[in-house]
Amino acid sequence: PQHVVLYPLVSKSLRNIAAGKDPLEGQRHCCSIAQLHDHYSLGYPDLDELQKNPQPLIFDIEVLKVEAPGSYQQDPWAMTDEEKLQAVPLIHKEGNELYRQGKVQEAAAKYYDAIACLKNLQMKEQPGSPDWIELDQKITPLLLNYCQCKLQCEEYYEVLDHCSSILNKYEDNVKAYFKRGKAHAAVWNVAEAQADFAKVLALDPSLRPVVSKELRSLEARLREKDAEDKIRFKGIFSQ
């Protein structure tokens, strides 16, 4: 007899990997039989049917590409702790190169992978411990790079969330204030943007030319918006 009763769980994990998800998403730490009973559905009708009626399987394997020895890069979830630490600087470098090439979305994905490696290691440390803090200080510049990508992709609320999380821990991080200020300005949080830019100047007065440019841009957009609103409301009230 063919032993395929657990294959549906294996297939679900493989499908999660193909979708860029954690292969163990939705699974608890228990034996495989308990997993079968614990889940009414695996989320895929064909796997549910195979789980109910196990039968021999034939696999067709197609070679998609051949990679040179040493060129294969593991996904972060498959790495050991040591491999994660070794991979982070390389992934960071790849992200920087993609960003310089103008491939912002691809760069963000690299920064995200590097952050995921470090976050996974950080979860194993006591919050606030020296090792935890050391990892957090490695995460912060990567997260700021990620936020720069998100600014260019106009995903401003994600930037607000991440920069605020950094500033909750590091109140003197100039880059986090500056990026958060730009995100606030983009979503018309005028007072918040001005406060963040003021904090940037207080921490680093040499950035006055850059901050002045951002404030002038914000003021110009406000004047343009006021003019548009006057025309719009004039049309409403004249009807």
UniProtKB/TrEMBL annotation:
<comment type="function">
    <text>May play a positive role in AHR-mediated (aromatic hydrocarbon receptor) signaling, possibly by influencing its receptivity for ligand and/or its nuclear targeting.</text>
</comment>
<keyword id="KW-0802">TPR repeat</keyword>
<dbReference type="InterPro" id="IPR056277">
    <property type="entry name" value="PPIase_AIP"/>
</dbReference>
<keyword id="KW-0597">Phosphoprotein</keyword>
<dbReference type="Pfam" id="PF23322">
    <property type="entry name" value="PPIase_AIP"/>
</dbReference>
<keyword id="KW-0963">Cytoplasm</keyword>
<dbReference type="InterPro" id="IPR039663">
    <property type="entry name" value="AIP/AIPL1/TTC9"/>
</dbReference>
<protein>
    <recommendedName>
        <fullName>AH receptor-interacting protein</fullName>
    </recommendedName>
</protein>
<dbReference type="InterPro" id="IPR046357">
    <property type="entry name" value="PPIase_dom_sf"/>
</dbReference>
<dbReference type="InterPro" id="IPR019734">
    <property type="entry name" value="TPR_rpt"/>
</dbReference>
<dbReference type="GO" id="GO:0003755">
    <property type="term" value="F:peptidyl-prolyl cis-trans isomerase activity"/>
</dbReference>
<comment type="subunit">
    <text>Interacts with RET in the pituitary gland; this interaction prevents the formation of the AIP-survivin complex.</text>
</comment>
<dbReference type="InterPro" id="IPR011990">
    <property type="entry name" value="TPR-like_helical_dom_sf"/>
</dbReference>
<dbReference type="GO" id="GO:0005737">
    <property type="term" value="C:cytoplasm"/>
</dbReference>
<feature type="domain" description="AIP/AIPL N-terminal FKBP-type PPIase">
    <location>
        <begin position="1"/>
        <end position="63"/>
    </location>
</feature>
<keyword id="KW-0677">Repeat</keyword>
<feature type="repeat" description="TPR">
    <location>
        <begin position="174"/>
        <end position="207"/>
    </location>
</feature>
